[in-house]
Design brief:
Elements (H helix, E strand, L loop, with lengths): L3 E4 L5 H14 L11 H13 L4 E6 L2 E10 L9 E8 L8 H15 L4 E7 L3 H9 L3 E12 L2 E11 L2
Parallel strand pairs: 4-5
Antiparallel strand pairs: 1-2, 2-3, 3-4, 5-7, 6-7
Helix pairs in contact: 1-2
Length: 165
């Protein structure tokens, strides 16, 4: 299986939207309740591009099977060297190296932009995502208990970080 990584284009948005909306509807990887619209996803991509942040897709046989991005962690200027990232893979394609390739590329791009810290905000019950992040050297940096509410339950939010340089 050849995985091609490239920067996302507007033409990729329907595939990215499907991935995001599946996560919203079926997982606690994303704490949103309502599906995103194509226009919301379009604005998200344009905002990332305007601010110099990458959105990359993983393509296999001309099908988008995952995407990764990072962006502003917090708005205050003192956080300008810290970014929060996301990596999503199409359901049923986990464990095939797609997420790992996306994460490695995000880390490479962040280092090239002279960023200092990458942060992942992960549902604390998501052992698979926690283990995935640890493989890349991320460490647990704190948990906010009952920070989210979804599917009728309170959710703990775990922060993991990677110091890039």
């Amino acid at each position: 299986m050849e995985i091609i990584l490239r920067h996302a284009t507007l033409a990729d948005l329907p595939a990215i939207l499907d991935i995001v909306n599946h996560a919203i509807a079926h997982t606690t990887a994303n704490y949103s309740y309502e599906p995103q619209t194509l226009e919301m996803q379009r604005q998200w991509l344009l905002d990332k591009q305007r601010n110099g942040f990458p959105v990359i897709v993983a393509e296999v046989d001309r099908e988008i099977l995952g995407y990764g991005a990072y962006g502003t962690f917090r708005e205050k200027i003192g956080y300008q060297y810290t970014v929060e990232h996301s990596v999503y893979v199409v359901d049923g394609h986990n464990g095939k190296g797609i997420g790992g390739r996306l994460m490695a590329e995000l880390i490479r791009l962040a280092r090239a932009q002279n960023l200092h810290v990458m942060v992942g905000a992960i549902d604390a019950a998501n052992a698979q995502s926690i283990a995935f992040h640890k493989k890349f050297g991320f460490t647990e940096s704190g948990t906010i208990r009952q920070a989210g509410f979804k599917f009728g339950q309170w959710l703990d939010l775990l922060f993991m970080q990677l110091i890039l340089k």
